[in-house]
What we know:
Elements: H1 2-29, H2 37-62, E1 68-70, H3 80-87, H4 94-97, E2 104-105, E3 118-119, H5 138-155, H6 163-169, H7 183-192, E4 196-197, E5 218-220, E6 225-227, H8 233-242, E7 246-250, H9 255-258, E8 260-265, E9 277-287, E10 290-296, E11 308-312, E12 325-328, H10 337-343
Parallel strand pairs: 2-6, 8-11
Antiparallel strand pairs: 1-8, 3-9, 4-5, 6-12, 7-9, 7-12, 9-10, 10-11
Keywords: Disulfide bond, Hydrolase, Protease, Signal, Thiol protease, Zymogen
Protein name: Cathepsin L-like cysteine protease 1
Domain Cathepsin propeptide inhibitor: 23-83
Amino acid sequence: MKVFLVAAACLTLVYIAEAASEFTRFKSQYRKDYPSDSVERYRKKVYKQNEKFVREHNERYERGEVTYKMALNHLADMHPREFMATFLGFNRSLRATNKVPEGIPFRHNKDAVIQKEVDWRQKGAISPVKDQGHCGSCWAFSSTGALEAHTFLKKGRRVSLSEQNLIDCSLNYGNNGCEGGLMEQAFQYVRDNDGIDTEEAYPYEGEDSECRFKKNNVGATDAGFVTIPSGDEQALMEAVATQGPLSIAIDASNPSFQFYSEGVYYEPECSSAQLDHGVLLVGYGVEKDQKYWLVKNSWSEQWGENGYIKMARNKDNNCGIATQASFPIVEGGRQSSEESSESS
């Protein structure tokens, strides 16, 4: 009995030492620097809880019970409630308190040729993954991502647009900066404002500030936006295949989303109505017989599959993937390669 107790105690000490070592590596890898010992102890405790959550999920993945894996990432020292309050800035409640602009309804084309797989990254339409930081500005990143893509598709011009411009300047349209907003309101602001500045001219700060828009720094504009029928995944598929990337809102509140790593994300606890995160839909496909939507996030390339997630497709609008989707109307003919190179 004594031998057994000693062995058990040794295993416990080994586990504690390994956990401490993993946390040390985590701090080093993501350059974590805590302001006090008490804060570090708390972060270490949260890290261990998240490690257990991820490990148990991945055991289910190995047994074939779920279709996606998780991994500890740069968010691993954040409690799920803190994570939600910090990163999920899509605020659908604004629709109830503000007069949200109406978009043009998307019209189904029965003669449209729909490809089996679409990935707008392969066409050069998608800008690199960005990082919203500790600011609930996902709605701004979703908006600029769509504007960047449609500007490229219509004008042949690649441009990185300013999320900070939207954060600081679209308050009169009902958006609340780092406290949340709506993509449709961002598109409306850009239309009425005759443009949005480039990221180079108006760089991201990750906090609310005064509006510093300058007309001579405009990188793109729009003429309104088109809305996709709510909950209609077939219309969503046609729109992204024939028109280009879409701004969409999803429920990302489950801790499983925080640590998504690879595979096709299906979360039975997801809501199709309580949406809290704005992202960019860039395509769709099939992986291991699992149909998915290809989604670009704004939590850096350290999250997910280099900043992307594959979300379950045709699974009863899981996580509200098709509940609130839209894309900006960018007018104007495609520039020649010479004009495009001169303007860049």
